[in-house]
Amino acid sequence: MHVAVGSTNPVKVAAVERALERYEPTVSSVDVDSGVAEQPRSVAETIDGAETRARRALESGAEYGVGLEGGVATIDTAPGLYLIMWAAVTDGDRTGRGAGPSLALPERIAGRLDDGAELGPVMDEYLGTTGIARDAGAVGALTDGLIDRTDALAAAVACAAAPFVTSHYE
To answer: Cys staple from 81: which of 67, 110, 132, 147, with CB 3.0 to 4.6 Å?
Structure first.
């Protein structure tokens, strides 16, 4: 199984490797544009970014293209702003989509995002770190390591890959 990930972020590549490890994939990293804002601000925009990354990664000649996108969004029935993550997997004919965990953001962080800031830099400033998005991520920091960004994104990839690894979707 040759899989191209539409990102050069090592956390995203590791998430794909982790999610698909039983299939012993060859995973390559492809620098693509998501086609959406650097900080997607809705479920629809986050999914669109994941799908665009997957399609563009597939153009590298892989068997499957995988796109991962993190965003922030409000959820109709829950108060506050949430960190969300989505994955898309495509073979060019079909596209599977799956979500990772969602996490309510603390008000002081959500307020900065509402003012137009991006989550990664806000978290780095808040925590006194550099490059949290290429490490444990906001989800790792906000859960005290109960789950890190790699595991959260791997869950999204596993869900998006479902139509390609079982016959239940045929």
So the answer is: 110
